[in-house]
């Protein structure tokens, strides 16, 4: 990010979470509007772009109840209508974002999947994802659409997520809400397990959507991050190995030497950026998660160092260059330790 030690890195997304917009109503046409007490979005976008960065805004599905009865821009359709043409509201919103310089929309609380958190959410908001996808396509601006959280992974909905969004959050948020540190290891265990579960259910095809495992909190020492050195390294290796979104959630004013190294190691970023290619280059992460601390869902109780072994069959690698499809490699790892291997043909 500009004016931080990450200035020359590949981290380019400046992400605004909830709070940037007016919270109870839209403009005269029911469009979502920025809160002038907090941000002037077009001016902020100009500044962000001038620094070589990209602007991300957070949204929740649908219009405000207070805007029911307002007429959608350039139509005679009222918000609240049950007619299919009421979907013209989405292009009016996205066009405004496009003209204001927004580069990525994070659409949160999509159902089925998101827990209600005492909110009265409709059971199925997948149509919102489709509508935003179509509105972005007609806007004339390249805007990413990321959706969240812990989305339903049954095939009917998974097909919608894959065809309509750029990334989907496979778990809930991992930050320590209300605590003095950013995250705890049991939340990381849960996020990784949900990623692995999602990868298993690819319905026998190439995955066509990136996974969002939430923000990276690896940049700060334990007093800030809540994680040990090994846990910080393992978090980064998993996010890289999963080709997950790399959006830094750490305090950028208190990055330590380890955090800066973990976030900027060229070989890791190259592995995340490139992924498998025609030369059969791939990456593999081996890890010892330690005992399940109550959130992971995998239920193991093994403590201390463990020998982690992976075979060629585990990696689905075959070929004449391999000595035997059953041979692979092993490594002894302490709790929360991991390694990231770059695999190339012999």
UniProtKB/TrEMBL annotation:
<protein>
    <recommendedName>
        <fullName>alpha-galactosidase</fullName>
        <ecNumber>3.2.1.22</ecNumber>
    </recommendedName>
</protein>
<dbReference type="GO" id="GO:0004557">
    <property type="term" value="F:alpha-galactosidase activity"/>
</dbReference>
<keyword id="KW-0326">Glycosidase</keyword>
<dbReference type="InterPro" id="IPR013785">
    <property type="entry name" value="Aldolase_TIM"/>
</dbReference>
<dbReference type="GO" id="GO:0005975">
    <property type="term" value="P:carbohydrate metabolic process"/>
</dbReference>
<comment type="similarity">
    <text>Belongs to the glycosyl hydrolase 27 family.</text>
</comment>
<dbReference type="Pfam" id="PF16499">
    <property type="entry name" value="Melibiase_2"/>
</dbReference>
<dbReference type="InterPro" id="IPR017853">
    <property type="entry name" value="GH"/>
</dbReference>
<dbReference type="InterPro" id="IPR002241">
    <property type="entry name" value="Glyco_hydro_27"/>
</dbReference>
<keyword id="KW-0378">Hydrolase</keyword>
């Amino acid at each position: 990010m500009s004016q931080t030690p990450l200035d020359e890195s590949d981290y380019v997304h400046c992400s605004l979470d909830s709070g940037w917009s007016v919270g109870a109503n839209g403009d005269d046409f029911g469009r979502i509007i920025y809160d002038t007490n907090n941000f002037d979005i077009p001016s902020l976008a100009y500044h962000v772009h001038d620094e070589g960065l990209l602007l991300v805004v957070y949204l929740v599905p649908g219009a405000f109840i207070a805007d029911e009865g307002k007429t959608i821009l350039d139509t005679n359709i009222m918000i609240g209508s049950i007619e299919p043409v009421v979907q013209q509201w989405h292009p009016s919103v996205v066009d405004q974002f496009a003209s204001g310089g927004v580069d990525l929309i994070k659409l949160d609380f999509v159902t089925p999947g998101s827990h209600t958190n005492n909110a009265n959410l409709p059971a199925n908001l997948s149509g919102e994802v489709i509508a935003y996808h179509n509105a972005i396509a007609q806007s004339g601006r390249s805007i990413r659409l990321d959706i969240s959280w812990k989305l339903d992974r049954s095939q009917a909905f998974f097909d919608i997520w894959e065809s309509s969004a750029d990334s989907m959050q496979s778990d809930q948020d991992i930050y320590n809400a209300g605590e003095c540190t950013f995250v705890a290891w049991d939340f990381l265990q849960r996020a990784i397990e949900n990623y692995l579960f999602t990868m298993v259910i690819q319905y026998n095809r190439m995955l066509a959507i990136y996974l969002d495992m939430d923000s990276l909190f690896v940049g700060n020492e334990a007093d800030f991050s809540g994680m040990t050195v090994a846990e910080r390294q393992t978090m980064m290796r998993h996010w890289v190995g999963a080709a997950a979104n790399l959006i830094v959630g750490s305090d950028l004013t208190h990055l330590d030497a380890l955090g800066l190294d973990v976030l900027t190691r060229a070989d890791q970023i190259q592995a995340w950026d490139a992924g498998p290619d025609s030369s059969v280059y791939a990456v593999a992460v081996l890890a010892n998660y330690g005992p399940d601390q109550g959130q992971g869902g995998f239920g193991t109780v093994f403590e201390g160092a463990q020998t982690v072994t992976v075979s060629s069959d585990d990696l689905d690698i075959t070929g004449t260059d391999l000595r035997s499809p059953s041979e692979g490699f092993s490594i002894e790892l302490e709790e929360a330790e991991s390694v990231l291997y770059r695999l190339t043909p012999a």
